[in-house]
Amino acid sequence: MIKYLGSKRLLLPQILAAVAEVEHARSVLDLFSGTSRVGHALKQAGYRVIANDWNCYAATLARCYVAADLETHAEPASALIEQLQVLEPAPGWFTETYCERSRYLKPEQGAKVEAIREAIAALALEPLLEAVVLVSLLEAADRVDSTAGVQMAYLKQWSARSHNSLSLRLPKLLPRSPHGPGEAHQLDAQTAARTLSADVAYLDPPYNQHSYLGNYHVWESLVRWDRPEVYGIACKRTEVRERRSPFNSRRRCNDAMRELIEQIDARVLIVSFSNEGFIDREAMEAMLAVRGEVRTFEHDYKRYIGAQIGIHNPAGEKVGQVSHLRNTEYLYIVGAPQRSIIVDLAPAPLAPVQLAPVQLTMLDPESESS
User: Collapsing DSSP states into helix, strand and coil, what is residue 299?
Assistant: First the structure.
């Protein structure tokens, strides 16, 4: 799966254990599905997953990893991927915008991506099959990009992986859940909370001012293939300025979260949040308490890679120190009776990571709030 700020890869065992506590649970609503890493793991565990995300790239990932099934889509997708892999590069708008005006991919990689994406568009595939081949392309591009993991910036020098060949792979599709087909929706969170239901709802909302659309705008353009107007050194979609989630606003996030909690149709809520977010532990527990007894588990983690790298000026020189390198992730559970089978939710120790020196471009002044 793609590199992703806020990925819950390390927290998956704890999330799965929390869902497993819920008696007779067959379905899980993943309201902010992102890369669908959590939804994919839940489907693998046998649950019927209903995924939702406002962003098109995330909804496409959910169609692939939650709604598409191994037994239906693997064979035709494999055949298409084999045909797409041998296409000759064809540079155009995508290459000019994201490989020349900015430096997310090397131009030869961008031209290959562009040829494949144009071919997918011309095929007019049924939605789930199209999602599988689009995810194959998205993940192939992610493996050869030149960023520190988010698209608010790109590296001043090409990354080592950017010199590799673009190689399509079949995504890791899963068999259909015995409880029924998965679903993938592209709704704003409030609409999804009013219209979707499941036995368990998992919430992992944005927690600060940085929007996921701004962090992954290149992938949004790759999936939508709409040649949007862009701005700044980062070539962000103008939509990043215009479409703001209430969860990215300190002023609006509490009301938005309270509304979600009150509206969601699920027996149990599991909420993942960070101590760096706009809503502190006390406030979150008070909101959730309207649905029953709240249990909170803490997990100490390294902060995102940008914090590990540090603060640099436009010349790539380190000019400041990051205030802290670790943060606390909270997992809140409400609505499920306490049972003795719950596993230890303490995180496993993490291996130390050696970071090579990198330099990021300095972006437009709006980058910190977009």
Answer: strand
Structure token digits, residue 204: 């992992």
CA distance 28 to 51: 8
* pLDDT tens track for 281-336: 999 999 999 999 999 999 886 655 444 445 445 555 555 555 545 679 999 999 97
- Residue matched to tokens 């259909």: 176
Phi and psi (nearest 5°) for 185? Answer: -120, 155
According to CATH, the superfamily of the domain at 9-164+172-369 is Vaccinia Virus protein VP39 (3.40.50.150)
Contacts of 345 by beta carbon, 8 Å cutoff, 6+ apart: 14, 17, 18, 297, 299, 331
Specify whether the CB–CB gap between 182 and 198 falls below 8 A: no
Return the SS3 of 173: coil
Interhelix angle 127-142/107-123, nearest 10 degrees = 180
Beta strands in the chain (DSSP E): 27-30, 48-52, 183-185, 200-203, 230-231, 236-237, 268-274, 294-302, 311-312, 318-320, 326-334
| Angle, vertex CA 223, rays to CA 309 and CA 197, nearest 5 | 95
DSSP SS3 for 169: coil
Distance CA 208, CA 24 (A): 35
* Both tokens assigned to 307: 């914090």
pLDDT tens-digit series, residues 355-369: 344 454 544 434 433
pLDDT digits (tens, 9 = 90+) for 134-184: 999 999 999 999 998 899 889 999 999 999 999 999 999 999 999 999 999
Count CA within 13 A, CB hemisphere, residue 188: 10
Separation of CA 31 from chain center: 12
Spatial distance between the Cα atoms of 310 and 317, rounded to a whole number of angstroms? 10
| Domain boundaries along the sequence of the chain | 9-164+172-369
Measured from the Cβ of residue 111, the count of other Cβ atoms closer than 10 Å reads: 21
DSSP assignment of 209-267 = S--HHHHTHHHHHHHH-----EETTTTEETHHHH---GGG-TTTHHHHHHHHHHH-B-S
pLDDT digits (tens, 9 = 90+) for 107-119: 999 999 999 999 9
Please tell me the pTM assigned to this model. 0.86
Specify whether the CB–CB gap between 211 and 53 falls below 8 A.
Answer: no
The residues pairing with 52 across neighbouring beta strands, listed in sequence order, are: 185
Residue 234's CB: how many other CB atoms inside 10 A?
Answer: 25
